């Protein structure tokens, strides 16, 4: 008898539907909440996705699980991450004030709400989450990106200027983000800044203790990476900040090798002035022999005036 009554009660209980949310039936939802209606996990994410602050508040007041989320075959996001990625500060605040977990890792690849906020770029949301003790050093489980990396490689269609990205990086640095925490591939925040061509961000990271000699894939330092990817302005910053001119990658190649290969006379001169050693060995012989052979071949077949100039610079410092 009691079992039958329980089943009957369940079948006849009132439930708020996603359609009610999508149609903005505030009055109906209010009445259902007053009747102690069931609030399924799917309805709050629907309201958040619509950016409907009024409905979000109604559902929270009606007992919706603020730590629930949205799930599809390919993507899982907690409610706070969903709001953060939508850049909706007011909804984020509603959720946080209602007790949403700022370090929820239930989303795809373990990305936290702060990670989504950093990637999609909303300064006010990031400030709020950091103030609420969100973990600034959380890493995703896919490639190990940190929150700082997410900010640096911010979604390109977010229409955020470099100054806004810079402001976000400053917030994270002030929040004690680990500047040398690397991803699975060994890439550091500094390497990410170089990759994206953010000279000012690179400067801030270095000033706050980023390791200039941290190596990423193939054993390349930020200086090597900057030169080989034609981020020459950043390479100058790194040299001026004291980057090691003689450090080697996995093949034994030094920054000078990359500068010669990229035919950049200014960097070749700067590295030589900083004591770049041409007599070191790499995996295929001596650096000096390799560099001079490269210069001679390029000069012989290409008639490159730049390579001739590089040859003169190298002769001056040999």
What does this entry look like structurally?
The chain has 318 residues and is mainly alpha-helical. Helix content is 54%, strand content 3%. It folds into three domains: 14-65, no CATH class; 67-178, Serine Threonine Protein Phosphatase 5, Tetratricopeptide repeat, CATH 1.25.40; 244-318, Serine Threonine Protein Phosphatase 5, Tetratricopeptide repeat, CATH 1.25.40.20.
What's the topology here?
Layout: H1 2-12, H2 18-22, H3 26-34, H4 43-50, H5 53-61, E1 69-71, E2 76-78, H6 79-85, H7 89-97, H8 113-120, H9 123-131, H10 147-152, H11 162-174, H12 189-195, H13 199-207, H14 222-228, H15 232-240, H16 255-261, H17 265-273, E3 281-282, E4 285-286, H18 287-302, H19 305-317
Antiparallel strand pairs: 1-2, 3-4
Helix pairs in contact: 3-5, 4-5, 5-7, 6-7, 6-8, 7-9, 8-9, 9-11, 11-13, 12-13, 14-15, 14-16, 16-17, 17-19, 18-19
Q: What are its keywords?
A:
318 residues, mainly alpha, Serine Threonine Protein Phosphatase 5, Tetratricopeptide repeat, 3 domains, two-stranded antiparallel ribbon, 3% strand, disordered N terminus
